[in-house]
Amino acid sequence: VDRAEEGNLTETVTRKALTEIYLLFSNREIKLYTVREWMQEWAKAKAGQEPLNTTENRNRSVEHILDALNKTANKRVDLVTTEELETVKPWLELQTARNGQPVRKSTQNIKLSHLRAAFREAFERGHIQRNVAAPIKNFPEDDSEIVMPFTPEELDKLHRAAEGEWKDAII
Fold it and tell me: Which residue blocks in 7-141 are alpha helix, DSSP H?
């Protein structure tokens, strides 16, 4: 109150005062995450509950998202906007796979689903008041190949080439 009367009531001073009041009444500290901190904590919490390759893929997605967000990744998660998160999409469109070809839209959509899932959980846990990632739409998957089931001839070749328990698995 003294600082407010002196004209020194800044956002930082206000935030500090509110944090202290919250701590006094709830006996808990307010945890304010940056987008980077939240995305990394979210990914870390998922690890161990799933196969290792799923964790590795999610971690790569998170790193790509954070790279795409650039300076926005260091912004507080409760202050980021949908428009800022949407900058991920043009960045993803420019990425190439190891073979030099553009990354498939289905792969880009997995990264977007990770972004939406992290923000959905931040919302559910009360770290943000609105899920600003929810409006972000997937890319149309017009570059995906339609994979047809094996023909009877292909199944026959696989069965003849299989050994041991694989022979029974290919029916």
Answer: 11-26, 35-46, 52-69, 82-85, 88-93, 105-124
Does the CA dihedral 120-126-130-132 come out positive or negative? Answer: negative
Question: Residues 127-145, buried b or exposed e (16+ Cβ, 10 A)?
Answer: bbeebbbeebeebeeeeee
Band of pLDDT at residue 134, cut at 50, 70 and 90: very high
pTM exceeds 0.85:
no
Distance CA 26, CA 78 (A): 20
Give me 106's structure tokens: 């289905």
Tally of CB atoms within 10 A around 73: 20
Ramachandran region, residue 126 (left: φ > 0; alpha: ψ -120 to 50; beta: rest): left
When pLDDT is cut at 50, 70 and 90, the band that residue 132 belongs to is: very high
* Contact yes or no for 132/80 (Cβ under 8 A): yes
For residue range 5-38, what is the model confidence (pLDDT) as tens digits?
566 778 677 777 887 888 888 888 778 899 999 9
Q: What is the mean pLDDT of the chain?
A: 87
Locate tokens 């790509």: which residue? 64
Count CB neighbours of 34 within 10 A. 18
